[in-house]
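Subject: mismatched residue count in predicted assembly?

I count 663 residues in my input, but I want to confirm that the predicted structure covers every chain. Input:
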Amino acid sequence: MSILVDRNTRVVVQGITGKEGAFHTRQMTAYGTQVVAGVTPGKGGQEMDGIPVFDTVEEAVSKQEANTSIVFVPSRFALDAMVEAAEAGVSLVVCITEGIPVHDMLRAFPLVRSYGTRLIGPNCPGLISPGKAKVGIMPGDVFTPGPVGIISRSGTLTYEIAHHLSQAGLGQSTVIGIGGDPVVGSTYADLLPLLAEDAETEALVLVGEIGGTAEEEAADWIAAHLHIPVVAYIAGFSAPPGKRMGHAGAIVSGGEGTAEAKAARLEQRDIPVARTPAQVSELLEGRRR
Amino acid sequence: MRLLEWQGRELLARAGIPVPQGSVVRSPEESRQVAANIGGAVVLKAQVPVGGRGKAGGIRTATTPDEARRVAAELLHMELKSYPVRELLAVAAADVQAEHYLSVTLDRRRRSPVFIYSPTGGVDIEDVARAQPQKVRQVPVPVLEGLLPFRLRRLLQPAPHSLRKALAGVATKLYHMFLNYEAQLVEINPLAETEDGLLALDAKVILDDDHHPGQQFEGLREGDQDPLETEASEAGLHYVRLDGNIGIIGNGAGLVMATLDLVAQAGGQPANFLDIGGGARSDRVKTALDIVNREKKLDALLINVFGGITRCDEVAKGISEATDSLPAGLPVVVRLTGTNAAEGRDILSRSGLVPVEAMEEGAAQAVRLAKGRT
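Triage response: the counts match. Full output below for your records.
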């Protein structure tokens, strides 16, 4: 099983002719993902490595049956690109772009949702169902197929944790980076029900960081609904309040969003919180026994 | 971008929200002049980007222009929560009958703006929310809906009847200001009831660092501007200055935060947060090394890279090119894993550096080496 992306996923890359878009299109294709189209306004009719490039997402959907979009366009064009993809009828939009104005996201979120489309990101590494499809920018060889679902707000920290899991023989069903911005298309709480229903996902790792209360909401949902082993890791215990730690959303403000508060809620809900990234796989093995 | 109070106040005034008479001053003499123009008691407020200024002695009252000059001289010599006071806001003292709280901020869960109102203002709103939750009203405003009047009726239910119309007026203006300046927070606390009507006696404004370009942002600047942080961000790096003595560089915000946590757990103190971002080439790594070593004498440096899009050999190249400019004797611990890690380790060993495999090991080693130097 796995969720959201698999061998049937047909990807259109928005911004395929840009530096990042072209590089990651090749990486995704090499991983085995079906990239069926690209979109760059003004470059319709061209090809990139044999992949047809269109001016609009509508053509990518009607001519190539794309059902998932990955967005690499510059931040000031991202709102337009996300809504265009949703309106054209793809069921999933994955936005990699960093630095999108928050007020653009306040519009993008309800608009994309109004077309019944799910949004992952922005400012995220995308998602991967190991061995099936990668719709993102993560190094594929870190991940191995298996029973552990991962939802994370971070990129490289997720690779770190997945690397340990893979080495311990704990492969992954689907790994999703939800992004480090204050306004993201999907939070833990939006994705947890999908993993809960996935027969292949037998355990869950939740990787969080300072800022907001999404981890607390996830802890509550897990306690009420999820009956598989869950382990969490939270980054940012040593972050000073009021400082943006790299991610736009990673900031402790008004006493809210501290790592301590998140860890406390998770542990209160009987979800162990690893103290180091390496400890995640140890705790998970303990829980699965 | 957190604005200082005086800039936030200017934005409120531009939006048509009443603020007390006064202006920003930078010298005792200027304070005297402003006090003389106002012609009555003035409040002098230290302009630093932190809360709790009153308790820390950063807000004082003066009844005459000469007293204003004296008080200003004292305030301008102060340091509040490690921020030197360089500017004051001098405003007419108001005759306050009651204090309210009003703000618009981001509701991350709903992904929409949200109004927060309380008839109990002038104190920390989180404290009010804990002690008397019924006195704090939150009303989200879906951006696509626009601001419909029923939202304000719901927001202002806890307000006295006689004030609801005036409060709705201020709230409407504040909402438009929130949109116009692409804010993450616009807060008036206290919003005072005076004989002359409502008056915004404080302004806390946080704008989105990633806002669209626009004329309305001209002249606005970060209240807490750190020149090194600005330089880093221009080089595509995220740098935050911290108090310790162990420099930290890594790729990816989450990984760097986790590295800081490991160093702290091992009993060390991070000197900074520095994220070189994705796909960094050797020159960006060199700049990062330069920035963490610039102003502070480090006792150890820990570099933690999980190669993915970022190639370990590029990082190693940047490190080895910069080794000559690093302070002599500075212990450097490098953790490289992932894409091209073997090539990266080769490059490092030619520069006499020994990479470690795991970040936990790297953090412990950096702390040990730093302790050996102090």
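The first strand of chain B starts at residue 22 and ends at 25. Marking this ticket as 'not a bug'.
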